[in-house]
Design a protein that fits this description.
The complex is a heterodimer.
Chain A: H1 10-28, E1 32-35, H2 38-45, H3 54-59, E2 63-67, E3 74-77, E4 92-94, H4 101-110, E5 116-118, H5 123-128, E6 134-136, H6 137-145, H7 150-173, H8 180-194, E7 198-199, E8 204-207, E9 239-244, E10 246-248, E11 251-252, E12 255-260, H9 267-285, H10 293-300, E13 315-317, E14 324-328, H11 334-338, E15 347-350, E16 353-355, E17 361-363, E18 366-370, E19 375-377
Helix pairs in contact in A: 1-6, 7-8, 9-10
Chain B: H1 3-6, H2 10-22, E1 26-29, H3 32-39, E2 56-59, E3 64-68, E4 83-84, H4 90-98, E5 108-111, H5 116-125, E6 130-133, H6 135-141, H7 147-170, H8 177-190, E7 196-204, E8 224-233, E9 236-245, E10 251-252, H9 259-264, H10 272-277, E11 281-285, E12 289-290, E13 303-310, E14 313-322, E15 325-328
Parallel strand pairs in B: 1-5, 3-4, 5-6
Antiparallel strand pairs in B: 1-2, 2-3, 7-8, 8-9, 9-10, 11-12, 11-13, 13-14, 14-15
Helix pairs in contact in B: 2-6, 4-5, 7-8
The chains are: A alpha+beta, B alpha+beta.
């Protein structure tokens, strides 16, 4: 179990986020920020839309306009009941369909003169903005989002706790003869009962091969993960990698574990977990303000051989997006890692992978937040075959 | 296996024909439904909008689709040289795009979204190309009427109906709306479907709030509650909505007044605007929501969602307009 970071105050969280965002805008010389991506609108406004497949989500999308001189964002939404109560009436507006040219023109007419920072746009909106000076809004957001307030950390911790509790129900069902998709059913039912706002990713319950050559085909030469869950029957001795994520109050969780189906983990599986544990423990030893991403990479890979999937990372941040900055150990290279300097409020999801080709491997995930002195846990500690203590 | 051997089908053929007709040489797509349509495959489902990124490329000169994926797991046989890997390095992504035969020489490139960051990168890969809107191509694609589409939506409809029935059986005094959401997802999964068109909804119809974001409170005896279930099965969606009155055994309500009139109007030649004049919500379904314009006329073979909400009753079905008239694909049987 993790310890609460603070008594959650969602209104305070929203107020502090907008203050950070406006400060980031000022620092970037941006007076107007237009947000169309659901997770970014959620960050700026606290607005909620129904969870859906992405085309529907596109037509349902809320749009936010943030001004550096206004303490409240303007929110345009089809779901006013999903907006926070403190948003003044003159900042809460009917939806604008920016997926279509008419809506895009309508939004354009609302924008003040000058430079516009934009995160992402349906193409009709992009076309409507063709004559305006447009700059990258994602980097402006990233500057605000990369460190979390206490309330944000508590949201992530609570989201993760729901994810972990649901996994305890799923673990009991993960026995030989069960279909992998039935585990998805147990999980999705459990998170709804435990109070999750929504599910964010098709739950992954993937039986791994002993060798990469056993397939599925790998473009990168590394183990392939994650793949969509199929209704395959679980068998004794299967090594299953799990990856699930839920949303609570706009914040993502990220659960990763390795389960051995229908029996006690072999000595090999235990040794792989012990190695995984040692990697994360070495990284945690250097996790504190001032350390760089490169320091974490060196701690995880003292010999230079990187124990994680080459197409992912040693660690990623999490917030209103399930993977956001800081990204450490990616294929962007050493200089990029060295440019990341840990600061209090940054969140790190560690996901090393121990792989011994021919004997499968171990993958789990653990989450911490950087504090003034070191770090604090936002997830339970990983266990082999378990769901955290 | 070559790409042409692997992938054949009305959707891709129609897409390539539309590209030819409109002079578009290549498509760079970020929307999963568009990628599903042209490639015929499903990648890992994520909820909600996603930032535009080059996740799928169609090249007209080679009649080929290229996908951002680390494996053909789940769609084995897809030609390996048409896959390019996940990367966090923009330069590597651009190198992957440059390596796609025929893309660099494209003069007109259609996209289904854009961001300042990706625009800068695409300018680098395609300095001479004109970037145009790919959405009209997909609007045409959604109008393709094929037996495969009808059958696939019908299969998704069966799953959606099952999920709604499970919710209805669980609907009673004191239940929480979100618990029913989980009941629906669990039923879907028991049928091998772990992805929704939208997360199931049980929402009181109180004339005020929408029927999509339910309150956290308990549902009570005698309340009219709208149940909505939508499944995404093998990349095809279907959904339905019904109204129940909460009780020991909750009772399904007939459709609202005017429903029969709206269904009767679902005939070849009826304009979508005529249905909307009667307060109906209408949109095409298939790879996802397929928006219809007001002036679009119904044709035999179209598959669409039809919804009517009047007073305390809400009803939604998936309709297939057959040559003998409208057929409800979300019927109980």
């Amino acid at each position: 179990m993790t310890t609460p970071i603070c008594t959650l105050d969602l209104a305070r969280m929203r107020r502090e986020r907008v203050e950070k965002l406006r400060a980031a805008m000022t620092a970037a010389g941006v007076e107007t920020l237009v947000l169309c991506n659901e997770a970014n609108v959620s960050y700026a406004t606290g607005a909620r839309s129904p969870a859906s497949d992405h085309l529907r989500a596109g037509w349902w999308r809320a749009v936010a306009i943030v001004r550096s001189d206004d303490r409240y964002p303007h929110l345009y939404t089809e779901f006013p009941e999903g907006s926070p109560s403190e948003l003044p009436n003159d900042h809460l507006h009917p939806a604008i369909e920016v997926e279509a040219a008419d809506g895009a023109a309508e939004l354009l007419a609302l924008l003040p003169p000058g430079k516009i920072a934009l995160d992402d746009a349906p193409f009709p909106l992009w076309q409507a903005l063709a004559d305006r000076e447009i700059v990258d809004g994602v980097s402006v957001l990233a500057a605000a989002k990369i460190t979390k307030t206490q309330d944000e950390l508590e949201c992530i911790r609570q989201a993760q706790a729901i994810n972990e509790r649901a996994m305890r129900s799923v673990r009991g069902a993960a026995i030989p003869g069960t279909l992998a998709t039935d585990l998805s059913g147990v999980f999705l039912r459990a998170i709804a009962e435990l109070g999750a706002t929504s599910n964010t990713v098709d739950p992954v319950f993937q039986v791994m091969p002993a060798s990469i050559a056993d397939g599925p085909y790998s473009v990168t030469g590394d183990p392939v993960f994650p793949l969509p869950t199929r209704p395959l029957e679980l068998e004794t001795g299967d090594v299953m990698w799990i990856d699930t994520g839920i949303n609570l109050n706009g914040y993502a969780s990220d659960f990763g574990a390795t389960w051995i189906i229908g029996g006690n983990p072999s000595e090999k599986a235990q040794a792989q977990f012990a190695e995984w544990r040692a990697i994360v423990d070495r990284v945690l030893e250097v996790t504190k303000p001032g350390a760089t991403g490169a320091d974490l990479v060196r701690a995880a890979a003292p010999s230079g051989k990187r124990p994680w999937l080459s197409y992912f990372y040693l660690a990623h941040g999490i917030g209103t997006d399930s993977a956001e900055m800081p990204l450490i150990g990616t294929d962007r290279g050493d200089a990029f890692d060295a440019s990341i300097v840990l600061a209090p409020g940054m969140v790190l999801v560690f996901e090393p992978v121990v792989w011994e080709d021919g004997q499968c491997g171990h993958r789990s995930e653990e989450i911490v937040a950087v504090t003034d002195e070191g770090y604090v846990w936002l997830s339970a500690r990983a266990e082999l075959d378990g769901v955290g203590i | 296996m070559t790409f042409t051997e692997w992938r054949s089908g009305a959707e891709l053929d129609h897409c390539l024909n539309e590209m030819q007709r409109t002079g578009i040489d290549a498509l760079i797509l970020g929307r999963e439904a568009n990628a599903r349509a042209v490639s015929g495959i499903d990648r890992l489902w994520l909820s909600g909008t996603r930032a535009f990124a080059p996740g799928c490329v169609v090249v007209r000169s080679t009649s080929s689709v290229h996908l951002l994926a680390n494996s053909d797991g789940g769609f084995e046989g897809f030609p390996h040289d048409h896959l390019y890997p996940v990367t966090w390095n923009p330069q590597k992504l651009m190198d992957s795009l440059r390596a796609i035969p025929g893309l660099s020489g494209a003069r007109n490139v259609g996209v289904d979204g854009m961001s300042p960051g990706v625009f800068a990168l695409l300018r680098d890969v395609l300095p001479e190309a004109t970037i145009v809107d790919a959405n009209p191509i997909f609007a045409e694609l959604w109008r393709v009427r094929s037996p495969e589409k009808i059958a696939a939506v019908h299969e998704a409809a069966r799953v959606a109906c099952n999920g709604l029935a499970a919710m209805a059986a669980f609907l009673r005094d004191g239940v929480r709306a979100r618990v029913l959401r989980g009941v629906c997802a669990e039923r879907f999964a028991s049928l091998g479907v772990t992805t929704p068109a939208f997360e199931a909804v049980a929402a009181p119809i109180d004339g005020g709030a929408s029927s999509w974001l339910p309150p956290e409170r308990l549902l009570g005896e005698g309340e009219n509650v709208a149940l909505r279930a939508g499944a995404l099965r093998n990349g095809w969606e279907a959904s339905l909505a019904r109204t129940y009155v909460v009780g020991d055994a909750s009772v399904e309500q007939p459709p609202p007044e005017g429903w029969d009139e709206v269904v009767w109007l679902c005939r070849p030649g009826t304009r979508i605007g005529q249905l909307r004049d009667l307060e109906a919500v209408v949109y095409g379904v298939g790879r996802g929501v397929e928006p219809y314009d007001d002036d679009l006329a119904l044709e035999v073979g179209m598959v669409f969602a039809l919804e009517l909400h009047r007073g305390r009753r809400l009803h939604q079905d998936i309709i297939h307009l057959s040559d003998t008239g409208p057929i409800v694909l979300t019927a109980d049987d």
